[in-house]
Design a protein that fits this description.
It contains five helices and five strands; from the N terminus they run H-E-H-H-H-E-H-E-E-E. With 189 residues, the protein is α/β, with parallel strands linked by helices.
Length: 189
């Protein structure tokens, strides 16, 4: 169940619509399009949303505005990961899924990216799920699920909640500065 919807009962088309509308993905390897600029790599997913974020504002908040016309090969690994985060965020998702977002980065850049993730959570209000082997990342989380195998896991809470868990998928960044009501749940059939 996610935000009141049982995703296991959705038809493939409804599940695809849910992913398009509600999820943002950040991968360990940035998967940027090498022939598109940083700005174009972010813009490429904006059309998937009815309420995308302003690309220039997002570039500024990610510290990429001055690099917007550069190609991925012309910027650092940390800047490429920021671009990948921007590409996931521009559609204004309720849930950001991150697979080892710091795995390919050095220690200093990893810390910067994790701080950026906290800022993203506070600023844009999307829930962030990070899959990682790095136990140190757990200290920044509201809740942790440790999985030894696919069949066994344990949940724990931390003392640093950024947002209450009941608000998953409820708040979105509002580009017009007015309150945005929660999106309607996908058709759960």
């Amino acid at each position: 169940m996610v935000d009141g919807c049982d995703l296991t009962v959705l038809k493939p088309a409804d599940l695809g619509e849910y992913r398009r509308r509600e999820l943002g993905f950040v991968f360990q390897f940035y998967n940027l399009v090498p022939d598109l600029t940083i700005k174009e790599n972010i813009e490429v997913t904006a059309h998937l949303s009815k309420n995308p974020l302003n690309v220039d504002d997002l570039l500024r908040s990610l510290g990429l505005y001055e690099h917007r016309n550069k190609f991925p090969r012309q910027v650092s690994g940390g800047q490429q990961q920021r671009c990948a985060i921007g590409r996931a965020l521009v559609k204004n998702p309720g849930l950001l899924l991150c697979d080892e977002p710091t795995g390919a980065l050095d220690y200093k850049t990893s810390k910067e990216i994790l701080q950026l993730m906290e800022d993203v959570n506070r600023t844009y209000g999307c829930t962030i799920i990070i899959v990682t082997h790095n136990a140190a990342i757990a200290r920044m989380a509201t809740a942790c699920c440790a999985c030894a195998t696919a069949a066994s896991s344990r949940m724990s809470s931390t003392s640093r909640p950024l947002r209450p868990p009941s608000s998953i998928g409820r708040r979105r960044h509002d580009t017009s500065r007015k309150a945005i009501p929660a999106r309607a749940a996908p058709q759960c059939r």
